[in-house]
Design brief:
This protein has helices spanning 15-20, 26-34, 43-47, 129-144, 187-196, 220-223; strands at 6-14, 54-61, 65-72, 80-82, 85-87, 89-95, 104-111, 114-116, 123-125, 146-148, 154-164, 170-184, 210-213. It is of the alpha+beta class.
């Protein structure tokens, strides 16, 4: 069965675009990224948590420029309409289905590590690099179709992002940057994880699996 086409895009924002679009926090960046795409979901789809088909990662920058990586199941617009101009520059290309046929990949991801509290049902952040490592290693295979080679896993920046959402609602998203080498154990589930993103907080820049195939894996011995 043929796989739906996925698109990899890079959104470049210069100083003028950042100021005009009032990009000041994660919610304003979310609004800008989503404005590049036709909204194909109904209200019932959104309430039922149907995936948006959009996953992105803010690669940061400074007050002069910003870059955002985007993976989507449809093509984005060329830029963001604002009055009589089009802001930002979008470069887009389709992803070959064979890109996801490799057994090993180097990966990088900003993840939202949380566990559900049994007593209250609330989602609580996983705190500390050791605990985040353990959480990721135990979850990646059953949930996302791959296992991470433990010797390669690195936990980078860990922080908490707080901002205002719709109707001035307070939103808090714990984020951890992880990188390492993964081995695909369930090809179909891995494709789904790549297309939809992994974990929670995907609407606010978490979950995009940035992967590069490892063609002759020097880590093959760890996978045995």
């Amino acid at each position: 069965m043929s796989q739906p086409t996925l698109y990899a895009s890079v959104l470049h924002l210069d100083r003028h675009a950042i100021q005009t679009l009032k990009i000041t926090d994660s919610y304003s960046l979310h609004r800008v990224v989503y404005s590049l795409f036709e909204d194909v979901r109904s209200e019932s789809d959104k309430q039922g948590h149907t995936p948006s088909g959009i996953v992105y990662a803010d690669k940061g920058g400074n007050r002069l420029e910003r870059q955002v990586l985007i993976l989507s199941d449809r093509e984005p617009a060329d830029g963001i309409p604002a009055d009589d101009e089009c802001l930002g520059e979008v470069r887009c290309k389709p992803i070959s289905p064979s890109f996801l046929d490799h057994p090993h990949y180097q990966f990088q991801v900003a993840i939202n590590p949380t566990r559900r509290e049994n007593a209250t049902g609330r989602r609580l952040p996983v705190k500390g690099r050791e605990a985040i490592t353990e959480w990721f290693l135990e979850r990646c295979e059953p949930s996302w179709g791959f296992r991470t080679l433990p010797a390669t896993l690195e936990v980078g920046r860990v922080d908490v992002d707080q901002f205002k959402g719709k109707q001035d609602r307070d939103i808090t998203v714990a984020k951890a940057d992880l990188r390492g080498v993964l081995e695909v154990t369930d090809a179909q589930l891995f494709r789904q994880s790549f297309a939809r993103g992994i974990g929670r907080g995907r609407a606010f820049g978490c979950g995009l699996l940035q992967v590069v195939p490892v063609l002759d894996s020097p880590f093959a011995e760890f996978a045995k």
